[in-house]
Amino acid sequence: MKPSIETNATNNTTLFHQPHYQELKSSFTRPISESNFHEGECFFQHQVGLSEDKSSQLSQFVRNYMPMQHREFYEKMPFLLVSSMDEKERVWASIIVAHPPFLQESTNVQTLQESTNDLTLPYQAKPMVSLARTLDDRSIHIETMLLHGDPLQNNLKSEIPIGILGIEPHTRRRNRVNGRVKGSVAFSNSGINDHHETVSFLLEVDVTMGNCPKYIQAREWNWKDRRREEGYGNVSRGLWVLPSQLEEFISKSDAFFIASASKESMSSSSLNPTEHDRRQGLDVSHRGGKPGFVTVSRTISQVEKTEQTILEYPEYLGNFMFNTLGNIVTNPKVGLLFINFDNGDLLYMTGKAFVAQGFQSKPGAQHTVRFYLEEWIYSQKQVPFEWKYLSESIYNPQVQFQSSLSKVNSNKLGMDSIVVRCKDRKKETHDTVTYTFSTAVALGTLQKAGQYGTFLIDMGPSGVVERSWTLTSPGGAGLYEISITVKTKEGGLVSNYLYEHMWPEKELRLKGIEGTFTLEDCIHDLNETKYLVFIAGGIGITPFMSILRRKKLQQLQSIIPQLEKIHLIHVVRTEQDLVFRSEIEKMVHHEFKDVFVFHPFLTASHISEDWKGGRGRLSKTDLEKIICHEQLLETQVMMCGPFGFMENIENIMQEIGLEKGRLHSEQFNF
Asked: Would you call 349 helix, strand, or coil by DSSP?
């Protein structure tokens, strides 16, 4: 396959430009029309050696509707990121916010600015006016206050494609939805003497997906009235080159947002998409790293023969969907948005981007994106939030090149990544092994039951790879060991490497421990919970084993005082696939006697007549036997497993009538 590329012989860097579609399509044995990914995304998947089976698995995470948890997620968001295209077909990234409670007051800006006393505005106690309301699983109604200088004000029109990203910084959770504005776009004055305009519109959903939590710095937000701050509402603009103070701001940033569009998004035919065309559209994505991961320089523009600002940033290892890179290789027009988390300033930029591959790619990245600025907008004191920095992402690679893996950062451990040494391996089933590692640090103190660890594995000629696995060890104060339970997959690069090479005294490096799939993080009404239901598909049982091993019955009853029953449903193909079966049965008869019920299910076509457990895929009838309708308001459900498995459970729970906030899930798609 030879896409349209440019090679710089001086520095051995390859710039990928727009590929020829027919050449690109001919390189795939499976027709691209059968994929949920467009040509550009498939190009990068093919380039990094992603198998068609793996690509097909990833396709399962791309939906044409919003699952229940996504609907709930968007409705509680105080802000969303949006991608749009202007009349010159340039792409912009924007931020939209819910109506701040303090702007529900009638006090105008002039009064605020002229007053010498602090004005008491009891907005922190006011409920937030919803930014997004999901009318059903295919449509979202959005009402927002446009911020000064935001290009979205001119770009938002009926029938245009847009992309939306919801991000919850304190949990690092994020979800995306791409779609089209349907019907009219209503602009109106907000009724506040602040020159802000309110806009409302309906988004028809084309594509939704969840994104992994990598590279997001954790932050908490609170409302912040900035109308009395110096510079509030000032907007400046420019072409080609940024002022030096803005270039310096970028070089210190640890996050930004990038909007991109597939080439087909620019054609008029995209206004009436077919099902296959729904892969096309606008995206907006988050990019994060250590301060300095974005570098700034200047060159002479080949168009205007004047100075031009260039940004470069690394594309770190992600979920292998390549939405942004795939768009760039088909359409180089992108928009960037930088948020100043200290003072609420916004820097919007639009220009062209190219993907570089070669020895100049930055540490931890397979590719580097080079952005050439064309126009910028700087709007001061516009984001009505104050942010509290919590922690850096454990995934952030070092900005400067390091010769040793010992320099890989892990804020969760409070130190550089650490060596963990294999002390034991236990074969759980024919294809599943538990590896136990000793550590020089009491990691049990840091671990919460249900969390995962991120490891670096030196695979020799194949290089160093990064993987995350649930920690099946119980954790606890003073423990100097951790364990992971890994299912060996056919064709699985890392799982097979561990199976063949990870024996006692062999070493890995641990970057950190993270995750929110814990009792404490998932369940907020512990005092009112009587019934816990754990649903596991295959190796998805691992977080529940960690929870059960850590939370002995007495401990569980101390944090869930009304607890009456724990149900563990484990769905596997054959009886031989029941990982931890003997240990679980001991819990049923001893540690959790009279409280714990185990429900194993087998899905194989041929099952022994002696089998006493469930048979076939979990059905509504099966779950209604376990979860009584009268107990729904006292029940919490946690599930973990393959995408299709959890989607089925989610649909059943919705039919049964379980409230959205009582169903919690964990996916291993990163």
From this structure: strand
CATH architecture type of domain 524-543+550-666: 3-Layer(aba) Sandwich (3.40)
**Alpha-helix runs per DSSP H in 77-210:** 109-114, 152-155
Every domain of the chain and the residues it spans: 5-391, 405-514, 524-543+550-666
For the record, the structure tokens of 381 come out as 């004191």
Find out whether 237 and 377 touch, Cβ atoms under 8 Å: yes
Indicate the Cα dihedral angle 218, 205, 267, 61, nearest 10°.
Answer: 60
Q: What is the pLDDT of residues 622-658, one digit of tens each?
A: 999 999 888 999 999 999 998 889 889 999 998 999 9
Question: Residues 67-71: contacts with CB within 8 Å, 24+ apart?
Answer: 67/137, 67/208, 67/647, 67/650, 68/137, 68/650, 68/653, 68/654, 68/660, 68/663, 69/650, 69/660, 69/663, 69/665, 70/175, 70/177, 70/208, 70/210, 71/134, 71/137, 71/660
* Beta bridge mates, 367: 315
What is the model's pLDDT at position 371? 96
> Tell me, what amino acid is at 507?
E
Task: Supply φ then ψ for residue 391, to 5 degrees.
Answer: -165, 155
Between CA 528 and CA 531 the distance in angstroms is 9
Q: β-pairing, 307-316 with 295-300?
A: antiparallel
Would you state the pLDDT for residue 277? 54
Q: What is the pTM of this model?
A: 0.67
Interstrand relation of 481-487 and 13-16 (parallel, antiparallel or unpaired): unpaired
CA distance 585 to 602: 17
C-alpha R_g of the chain: 26
pLDDT for position 50: 66
**Residues 70, 77: contact at Cβ < 8 Å?**
no
- Cβ-contact 456, 466 below 8 angstroms: yes
pLDDT tens, 59-114? 777 889 998 889 999 999 999 999 999 999 999 999 999 988 776 543 343 443 44
Pick the CATH number of 405-514 from 2.40.30.10, 1.20.1250.10, 2.160.10.10, 2.40.400.10: 2.40.30.10
> From residue 404, how far is each of 191, 289, 396, 456 by CA, in Å?
59, 19, 15, 12
Longest CA–CA span in the chain (Å) reads: 83
Q: In angstroms, what CA-CA distances link 563 with 159, 339, 567, 568, 604? A: 51, 45, 11, 14, 34
- Stretches in the chain below the pLDDT threshold 50: 1-13, 17-25, 28-31, 105-127, 191-193, 267-276, 358-360, 400-415, 670
* DSSP structure class, residue 575: G
251 touches 295 (CB < 8 A): yes
pLDDT at 477: 66
